[in-house]
Amino acid sequence: MNSEFLNGPCQVLPASEETSSDINQCVKLRIPKDGTAVETMEPMSVPGLINNTVKNYPDHIAYVYKDTEGKSVKVTYKQYLQNVRTCAKAFLALGLERRHGVCILGFNSPEWIISNLAAIFAGGVSSGIYITNNPEACCHCASTVKANIIVVEDDNQCQKITSIRHQLPDLKKIVQYRGEPKDPDVMSWKQLMDIGEQQNDDDLERCLKEIAINQCCSIVFTSGTVGNPKAAMLSHDNLVYDSRASFERLDVSMGEEVLVSYLPLSHVAAQMVDIYFVITAAATIYFADNDALKGTLIQTLQEARPTLFLGVPRVWEKIQEKILYVSSQSGILKKSIANWARYQALKYNFDKMNGKPSKSWGYSVASTIILEKVKQILGLDRCKLVVTAAAPLSPEVKKFFMSLDILLMDSFGMSECGGHCISTPDAFNLEASGRSIPGTKVKIMHQEDGQGELCLYGRHVFMGYLNEPEKTRAILEDDGWLHTGDIGKVDDSGLIYITGRLKELLITAGGENIPPVPIEQMIQAELPNISYAILIGDKKKFLSLLIALKAEVNQDTSIPTDVLMPNVQDWLKSLGCPAKTIKEVLDGGPDAKLLNTIQSAIDKVNAKVTSNAQRIQKFRILPADFSIATGELGPTLKIKRGTILSKYKDIVDSMYS
């Protein structure tokens, strides 16, 4: 490298374009000439950001995790940086080449974020792989980034990589960070760190000097719901700006103590960006363990008592199901008191959301005496901000938590830009995703009735798709505007609403364009005990509906069982058609009382739609619930419509025969 370009890690190298599909190319930064302090803030690399945090807050606790004996271990920012540097030196000793990948395949953990940052420090690129990926999908990701090193969580994930190792010519070492490797060619985490401790700093310092802010440091793979995942290249400035602007939006200052109980967001992009804005605020991160959704989550929350909590929609649905189940076992008096308190909180929060704040005597009593105890039991009594991310969350679930005096703040982002907007208590609506973070812009293209494709702009927008210039040009305009593919609108207060997907539009045989998501949400609001409602009708004469009932999940395989959730069993019993399994529901044809209840809900929705073409004419109950493991949901919990239509082709055909 030219000697004048050895001033990293916070140097900016010459560039002529704002976008690129070449991992070795730098891009122009999108820094405006004037604007707010956040918009024009001095660019910084990821290593530069962490070094500054350590300089200012060396003894602040960076993260807390449980060791093998279940004891909490606290790690300061100074120790965190040392761990990252040790890991980076080990990666270099194992042969990590410049601009080559370090892939990470595992559950959230200290090792995950250390590996992630160490790859960047060592001049490579970090790249997370979804833990639900099969070996073929892992192979695609690893080969795309020319991975020299793959870090896996356990033997289960390790086997995926060893089975495809012969297809990865660039791979030099597999590292396993939980449990002892069974394969002698696989290195343990301890062995990795021991190698790092034996190295001097010379090679690492050389790599740091070669780093530039406007080059790729991380690759985030899209969820791949259609075709192979695309590799979105993120620069240092993309990540650092997104993290700092996000905390500006949340009104959190540098150095302010923020305790984060951190459940893994299914979306790797969200996971990585969250890591960076935790670092930005010098926060303390609490890692939830692998059994979080099997019952240990509340224990983690009670220990951490976080001031900020991030969770995927399934987290909130599980908490809701648990609360409703406990409530159903309570006596009439307790139920009545709880329902009264929930009504008071719901009314108060709706009034506040609609700009008419009023604190009644009833709300004050309910909040202080009853709902505060609920928050304490959940470990959320100190929480200032509770965020749902990675996939859409039903407004009905949000209403439920509003009735507990807990406002779930929605957020929206993409692999291609990290987080773009987030709700806050002063900018909240049940159906909105919040306002854009400072320094970013949004516009609506091809508007009809105020809605159209949502397009985003800012320093957080990615560089381009690795080795895919045509797909880059298709989504990223020359002037930097990112086409999201989402249909949305922006209201007068700047709140952004996502109302559907362009590619999910159903075009009926009569030529009507119908966005399925709003109709599906209305169905689920009328039928809260169902798991999913899937609207179908593309190229068909009329619309139909597929309904999945909520079922228990096998905790070992993550595959839904045939046993219905307790609340669904209670619902069916209240209708006069008791059943404990989906098979019992379907044997001999569903009970007429259940069919009439579903049809009544559909009739209510049909009365609200804007045209006859949007009316649902038929429905079927499916024989199983949806999951990632069985293929109906993508890694970010998005519906895979094509898979569902293919899997249940016979059922679909029966409605149109």
From TrEMBL:
What is the top-level taxon of the source organism?
A: Eukaryota
Q: Which residues form a coiled coil?
A: none
Domain AMP-dependent synthetase/ligase, residue spans = 53-466
Note the InterPro entries from the entry: AMP-dep_synth/lig_dom, ANL_N_sf
Keyword Metal-binding applies:
no
Q: Name one GO molecular function term.
A: long-chain fatty acid-CoA ligase activity
Q: Which EC numbers does the record give?
A: 6.2.1.3
UniProt keyword Aminoacyl-tRNA synthetase, yes or no: no
UniProt keywords (A-Z) are: Fatty acid metabolism, Ligase, Lipid metabolism
Protein name, per record:
long-chain-fatty-acid--CoA ligase
Organism for this UniProt entry: Cryptolaemus montrouzieri
